[in-house]
Amino acid sequence: MTNHSYYCCTEPTCTRAPLTQGSDGLTCPNGHFIPYAPGTDVPVFACEPEGANEYSQENAAEVHDNALRWVFNTFQTDEEGLRERLIARMGLKKGQRVLITGAGAGNDLPYLVRALSGRGDIYAQDIAKEMLLAGVSRYRTELAASGVGLHFSISDATNLPFADGFFDAAYHFGGINLFPDIAMGISEMNRVVKEGGKVVIGDEGLAPWLVNTELGRMLINNNSLYACSAPLAALPATARDVKLSWELCNCFYVIEFQASTEPLPVNIDVPHLGKRGGTIRSRYFGRLEGVDPALRDRIYEEAERRGMSRVAFLESALRASLDKD
C-alpha cells in the first residue's frame, strides 16, 4: 500500500489539512473520510455520476481511444511526437514531481515517465472514475519498474487535494474546455505548482485565422469545441512568461506559463514627468470630483506658470487650504 500522506482534505473548512491513511480510505483531522475505489488504493475525493457522459461509462477508455485515433488520423499528426513536444514544454528534470489533471486513461504517463529519466513522481487526477481506473489498470504495473512513482486520485480539478506549491510542474491536454469553471481549474494548477514552475494547458480551439474559413466552419460543425478560444482571460493575474501556440494543424491551442502567486513587479509609484504629473497610483485612486472647466483651465495655467506639474500644484494647494483650517 502506498503512502498517502501527500494528500490534503478538500473540504472548505479544513484548509488543506493533511490526510492519514487507513485500510479503506483517508481521514482528515476533522473526521472527513475519503474512501478508496473498490479493490484499489485510489482515493475518491469527487466523482462524476456513472453514465453522466462518455467519460463515465463502463467502456469509456475504449471510446476515448477511438476518438484519439480519429484525431491523429484527421490531423495527420504523429501521437508520440505530439505528446513528447507538449511534455517537453514543462522542462522536467530527473527527480521532480509533476501533476497531470484530466489524465483520463493515462495516455501521457509513459511520456512523462520518460521525461523524468527514471526518478520522480507523477500524480494523475481525473473526475471520471471509469477513465482513471482504466489508466491504473493499464499503466501502474507496466510502469512499476520505471523508478518513477505513480499516484492516482479521482478528484475535482477545480478543487485539488494537494498543498500549495507541492509540484514542480503541472500539465493538462484535452478536457479543460469542459470544465465547469475553467478559471478555477487553471487557478488550482497555479496554486499547487511551486513559484516559477511550468503549467502547460491545451485543448480543442482553432487559431483565430482559421475560425471563419470553410475548413474552420466544417470542424466546428463536426465538433462545437473547435469554436473555443484559448482561455487567456482565465489565467491568474500573477502568471509569468505566458506563451500561446497551436498544435494539430493549428486546431488545438496550447498555453504555457510560469506559476506564481506573487504580485507582478510593477512600481505604481514612479512619478510622471511633464505637465500632468502624478503616479499610476495617484491618478487612479486620487481622482477628484468634477470642477468648473474654466476653473480647471486657470489651475492648469497657474501650475504651468509656477513650473509645477498639475498634480503637484493641486496637491500643494489642497494641503495649504487644509492647513489653514
Automatic annotation (TrEMBL):
InterPro entries hit by this protein: Methyltransf_11, SAM-dependent_MTases_sf
Domain Methyltransferase type, first and last residues per copy: 102-201
GO MF terms, alphabetically ordered: methyltransferase activity
The keyword Methyltransferase appears for this protein: yes
Keyword check for S-adenosyl-L-methionine: no
Keywords: Methyltransferase, Transferase
Pfam family, one: Methyltransf_11
GO term, biological process aspect, one: methylation
Transmembrane segments: none
Protein name stated in the entry: Methyltransferase domain-containing protein
Originating organism: Azonexus hydrophilus
